[in-house]
């Protein structure tokens, strides 16, 4: 084993799940349950700064007191039921092939696994949702080679708190200096930074205007042969063909370690 770990966020990293998956599933849920509102993409973007679907829905309702779905335990139960239905609808969308993997993600996972890195996924989404995306994007054989998936309510404080990344590293037996995280959002990158971990950001549909002050590298994707990544900020760790490979992740980790030591 190499002594390295690659930890991946799910939504926006493995696939463009928020716009084409979660938002669609939320609105279908609201329709089926007779909720008197739907979310536009413009409304949904800011809500993504709140980690977790249940938490997102609860925050939205708190912002809109004119929407009466009950209060106290009754409201919590309705939110829980809505989130359960939404997760089921989301998995159906993934299983139908509606969410193809982002450029380079299946390649970098395979490269890391082949080199003996531990690979795990750490997400605030429901575990079933994450597993569905992994099955769709990398397939069951590669998923079986991964170390683990840590998702949902496994930690009480969700991103931007560092808890999910600290837990994942601990479970893998890795220190923060042995980990590279791939994230796409401001809250996720802040969580990785607070955990003291090197992180590469691949911006997604909703996060192109976010700020990532502690990221080693910010790109529009990991890239692939014939589909180079565009460097948006930070250290250029792309290879000669313009995409980020495992050597690029090693460079990101070395730069982060050197910066922490200085």
Shape: globular
**What are the low-pLDDT stretches, counting only 5+ consecutive residues below 50?**
none
Helical proportion? Answer: 40-55%
Number of E strands = 7
Described by strand count, sense and barrel closure, the largest sheet is:
7 strands, mixed
Structural class: alpha/beta
Task: For the record, give the distance between the C-alpha atoms at the N and C termini, rounded to a whole number.
Answer: 28 Å
Rg, nearest Å: 18 Å
Mean residue pLDDT: 95
Strand neighbour order, sheet with most strands: 3-2-1-4-5-6-7
Strand content: 5-15%
Number of helices: 10
H/E series: EHHHHHEHHEHEHEEEH
Notable traits:
single chain; 262 residues; alpha/beta; 12% strand
Structure report:
The protein has helices at about 15-35, 40-45, 55-65, 70-95, 105-115, 125-135, 140-145, 165-170, 185-195, 245-260; strands spanning about 5-10, 120-125, 150, 180-185, 200, 215-220, 230-235. A seven-stranded mixed sheet has the order 3-2-1-4-5-6-7, with helices on both faces. With about 260 residues, the chain is α/β, with parallel strands linked by helices. The chain is built from ten helices and seven strands. Strand 4, helix 9 (about 185-195) and strand 5 form a beta-alpha-beta unit. The protein starts with a strand and ends with a helix. Helix 3 (about 55-65) crosses helix 4 (about 70-95). The radius of gyration is 18 Å and the shape is globular.
């Amino acid at each position: 084993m190499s002594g390295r770990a690659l930890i991946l966020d799910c939504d926006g990293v493995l696939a463009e799940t928020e716009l084409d998956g979660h938002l669609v599933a939320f609105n279908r849920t609201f329709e089926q349950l007779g909720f008197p509102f739907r979310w536009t993409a413009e409304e949904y973007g800011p809500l993504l700064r709140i980690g977790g679907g249940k938490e997102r829905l609860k925050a939205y309702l708190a912002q809109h007191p004119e929407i009466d779905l009950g209060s106290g335990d009754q409201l919590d139960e309705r939110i829980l039921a809505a989130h359960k239905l939404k997760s089921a609808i989301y998995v159906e969308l993934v299983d139908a092939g509606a969410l193809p993997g982002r450029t380079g993600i299946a390649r970098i996972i395979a490269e890391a696994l082949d080199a003996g890195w531990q690979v795990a996924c750490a997400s605030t989404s429901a575990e079933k949702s994450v597993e569905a995306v992994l099955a769709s994007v990398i397939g069951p054989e590669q998923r079986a080679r991964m170390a683990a998936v840590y998702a949902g309510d496994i930690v009480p404080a969700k991103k931007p708190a560092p808890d999910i990344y600290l837990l994942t590293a601990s479970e893998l037996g890795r220190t923060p200096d042995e980990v590279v995280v791939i994230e796409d959002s401001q809250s996720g990158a802040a969580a990785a930074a607070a955990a003291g971990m090197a992180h590469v950001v691949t911006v997604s549909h909703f996060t192109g205007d976010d700020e990532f002050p502690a990221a080693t590298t910010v790109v529009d994707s990991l890239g692939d042969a014939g589909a180079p990544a565009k460097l948006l900020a930070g250290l250029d760790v792309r290879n000669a063909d313009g995409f980020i490979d495992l050597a690029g992740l090693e460079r990101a980790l070395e730069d982060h370690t050197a910066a922490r030591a200085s």
